[in-house]
Amino acid sequence: MIVMKFGGTSVGTAESIRQVREVVLSKLGEQPVVVVSAVSGVTNLLVEHVQTGRDVKQELLQKHREVIDELWQTPPEELLQYLAETTEQTLARAAELEGAEKSDTIVSLGEQLSSKIVGSFIAEQHPARQCVATELFVTNDAFGAAEIIDEPSRHNVRALKNEVRKENFVPVVTGFIAATKDGRTTTLGRGGSDYSAALLGYYLGADEVQIWTDVDGMFTADPRNNGEARLIPEITYEEASELAAFGAKVLHPKTMRPAVHGGIPIRIANTFRPDAPTTRIVAETFRQHEVIAVATKTSVVMVNIYAAEMLLMKGFLARISSVFSEANISIDIVSASEASVSVTLDNHEQLEAALTKLREFSEVSVNENVGVVSLIGQSIARSPALLGMVSKELADMGVELEMVSVGAAGINISVVLASGDVSGVAKRLHSLCIGGEK
Ligand code: ADP
Ligand code: ASP
Ligand code: MG
After folding, report:
1. What is the pTM (predicted TM-score) of this model?
2. Which residue's alpha carbon is at the smallest distance from atom 5 of ligand 2?
3. How many whole angstroms from 108 Cα to the centroid of ligand 2?
4. Which helix (H) or strand (E) segment is 372 a member of?
5. Ligand 1 pocket member 8 (CB < 6 A)
6. Which fold has domain 293-433?
7. Measuring from atom 10 of ligand 1, which residue has the nearest CA?
8. What tens digit of pLDDT does each residue of 139-189 get?
9. Which residues fall within 8 angstroms of residue 28, CB to CB, at 6 or more apart?
């Protein structure tokens, strides 16, 4: 079996959905289980509704209706009914809820609708069925970024596997969404459909998880921003994880966890160029001391924490990290000295609450106009020559550094600098360490 996940742009238009069907039908011999994201732009629209209250129902219905009308001369009545009823029912259910739970119920609509459309369209040519993952993945109630509960999720996916084996159909599973054990809808975090695909791959014992997107694979830099970026044909789980965590949007950072546990290879491929070379993510490669990619985050928050008399005392770092973890904020980079601890974080709606807690026991300053450029590659941080070369380049550019971090696994060298310097520095370091066309 293989898992094939199609992202937002791959299900963004009627044309792209035709392409998705073609790619899926070409893999029938490998027993595909399909996972889809919401139609491109739909999750953002739903998030906007949550945040501003703007009524987006007509826009939402129209967007999907346009896709349907292009795919079918006479759309199946059942599909049109699903579109109208699911939208109505989901919004009505959300109206009874509050906070993050309400938000998850609303944003779950995108994947429910896209999976129904894609499932119905594939079913015109081969047996296929929509499968809503609230019936598959069981999570805790950390709405917005829920954590999977292993046993019941495994049980449900195994049941699906048996059904597929018996009845030989292609399931089209909603990415991104799940439910608590009492059936309340949760989500796995923005961009979480990649993670859904990896989870399915793990519980199914799949031969491969394929992430089909709008680029050929993982590149040495974001191909949208850097013309010199090249495809990386093979990369380790560890490198890919690091790249994802430090800004390469092509994969959700949690995707690698289940793949590593299950030893399942991940492939990233281009929906629109299915025969083009791809990236395969595997356990090991033989590269060492070689920068394989540059990742960037243009806007992060840097928090400096001073508490002179307590610093480096037992439990102080733990206290800081528990403040962030209670606010559901994950820390990217930490740097500690005798006099202060600095961390970088992605901006987060609960940041203010966390800062207030930190101020109860320390002095805190915040710098919001910073970004991160990270070099990634197996054991690069153990190469003094490389570190020297990078420092010299930054000095020549006259860049002021807020923080430098050498990842403990030796796989990541990150510099924190002014947001405005991120793009220029990333390009220069890419040219220096990786170069253009080889
Ligand atoms: P999907 O909708 O298929 O999930 P995403 O937009 O989430 O797709 O991810 C694909 C995008 O990731 C690409 O269009 C590309 O601009 C961006 N990206 C950022 N860094 C990288 C990288 N190192 N390699 C490939 N793509 C990258
Ligand atoms: N639709 C969700 C999002 O936009 C999940 C995904 O696309 O992976 O975040
Ligand atoms: Mg994505």
Report:
1. 0.94
2. 191
3. 10
4. strand 363-376
5. yes
6. VC0802-like (3.30.2130)
7. 250
8. 999 999 999 999 999 999 999 999 999 999 999 999 999 999 999 999 999
9. 126, 170
